[in-house]
Amino acid sequence: MLVLINHQSVLDIPLVVAALPIHLRIVTRGRYASGKLIISHMGRLYQYPVVEPTATVPGRLRSIGGAAQDSSVPIVLYPEGTRTRDGLLESWSEGELRVILGAWQWTVKLIVADGLWQTDRLTDFVNKVSSIDSRSVVVGPFVSPEPGTDPEPFIAFMRVRMKAVFTGLHSEELER
Questions:
Q1: If phi over 0 gives left and psi between -120 and 50 gives alpha, with beta otherwise, what is residue 47?
Q2: Which residue range(s) make up the domain with 64?
Q3: pLDDT digits (tens, 9 = 90+) for 125-154
Q4: How many domains does one find in the chain?
């Protein structure tokens, strides 16, 4: 299974774990591979695939595809690549997604969240825990295209679907 989630906060990981209470492998930025108290340890323990945001070298991207293909547990990917600063969706960095889709035919689920962006750091979470008002939805499953076929229509569909669900969640927030 491949899980695509928008990235708002340090609470995204607990959200994914709560939404899909199974062992997951989360594609993680290289800078979190060491020196970060919890995420670095979890990354080593659970063998999270590591990616550099600027990775365009085919070998680096292929290693993500290999890690995804060899995974017996779901892979979690943040297509935006980084947390949003205003709560809205960012454009997608699709290199890793294309490689992962090219490695395997996946069952794909979207997790769409809104309302967590003001707790983007651990200190924000601690200081604002009582005022968090978030919503999230799991959408899917969808079946990705077979490896070797053009993933662009599927990626576009996932992006549009995530935006539509997010817009609905965000509208609910504005109505409150």
A1: left
A2: 2-175
A3: 677 777 777 888 999 999 999 999 999 999
A4: 1
